[in-house]
Amino acid sequence: MIMRSKQARPLRIAIVGTRGVPARYGGFETCVEEVGSRLAARGHDVVVYCRRLGDDRSLELETYKGMSLVHHGAMKKRSLETLSHTALSVQHLVRHRTDAAIVFNCANAPFLPSLRAARIPVATHVDGLEWKRDKWGTAGRRYYLMAERLAVKWSDALIADAVGIQDYYLEKFDKPTDLITYGAPVLDGVGSDRLAELGLTAGNYHLVVARFEPENHVDMIVEGYSASAATRPLIVVGSAPYADEYTNRVHSLADDRVRFLGGVWDQELLDQLYANAFTYLHGHSVGGTNPSLLRALGASTATTAYDVNFNREVLGVAGRYFGTATDVREQVEVSEREVAETLHLGWLSRQRARHYDWDEVADRYEDLALRLAGRERSADIVAAQPLVAVPDLNELDGSVPEPGYALDVLAAMARHPAGRAVAQPGHARSSARPAGARRSA
């Protein structure tokens, strides 16, 4: 664990680009809650920008686990939701400066020049290889490829949560990153009493927890399981707000042994589902280190994962792997036939969970924030401070995907009553460079 200097002054740190806290949705939000609360407990002033859940503002918290919360709305359209919320967040942030900012999701890269203009040093958590997700279509994938270049160009540091992501940025952009994974929650003593609400018993079901997206291979898992001779039911937790066609496909592949619970937002119940599953099936393929996989590790649950480098990095010899529906069928049947081996893999998973500690993750974010705050800012920064600056994409070096999609998004935001974008061409380049890559112990 990295030890903190007692002489280090507390920082004011902004966290931008997620749905915020309390964590109800995914890996970013879990990371923000786990890391932000720890940094706040160490005396730092942590400001988290949160997305409004509805029109009733009385439900919005001003503080949570020591963090200060700032709420803004968002346009309810998949391609605009994240960007519109980040636009409003950045508009507020440049008027309420912090010592450092952590921006999650490289899709938010068009807003980085505004933070640089406000002289706020910023690190971007680049997430996974989003351009590989089918849900975005051609225009969306072009946008994400462009956003990667912008994040490399305008971030003071980049954060990767998996070695595979770190290698990608080094090989494609010759850009080092800070390797900071997520933590694995240790699910000891969570009990099993809530399972009765679902008619389940401990150790007698297989589990899937995932958003319904093609890259998470829920359809492949359901298809393979339905073709198997498994005697334990398959419990599927998850949904997706913009994926009716894919959701219908998943349901069409299921037999009567498959139960769909939809989204489970009750953390106690969800933890019991993880901790008492016979196996966990994990189909995620493009998102780097996945918190759902780490939760299964911390629950000592034997895991069968889609065979990609990100999942092998986490599971290693503790996992079984699949690449087709036939593989799923075979691995499910093996897990039920070789019970002792399955239980042993669960034990191995727990040993690997020790390498993913939230306290150490918080240490690394604190170390990065201190480094950002102490960085000498480049003089080559635009003096003006627009609300939301749209970069001149023609200035980029090398071959750049067509920028039309990004500009269309921002133009739509400008017409929306929730906020506006200000076109600001010709942003100067900064000479600031991120520190060298660091790898977890």
Structure description:
An eight-stranded mixed β-sheet has the order 3-4-2-1-5-6-7-8, sandwiched between helices. Strands 11-10-9-12-13-14 form a six-stranded parallel β-sheet, with helices on both faces. Helix 1 packs across helix 13 and helix 2 crosses helix 14 (404-415). Helix content is 38%, strand content 15%. It has two domains: 12-183 and 358-423, Rossmann fold (3-Layer(aba) Sandwich), CATH 3.40.50; 193-353, Rossmann fold (3-Layer(aba) Sandwich). It is of the alpha/beta class and 441 residues long. Mean pLDDT is 83; it is low at 375-441. The relative contact order is 0.15.
Class from helix and strand fractions = alpha/beta
Q: How far apart are the first and last residues' alpha carbons, in Å?
A: 9 Å
Main beta-sheet annotation: 8 strands, mixed
What's the quaternary structure here? Answer: single chain
DSSP strand content: 5-15%
Q: How many E strands?
A: 16
Give a brief rundown of this model:
The protein has helices at 27-41, 78-93, 112-117, 137-154, 163-173, 218-226, 244-252, 267-276, 291-298, 309-315, 325-337, 339-353, 358-374, 404-415, and strands at 12-16, 45-51, 63-64, 67-72, 100-104, 122-125, 157-160, 178-179, 206-209, 234-237, 258-262, 279-282, 302-306, 319-322, 389-390, 422-423. The protein is an alpha/beta fold.
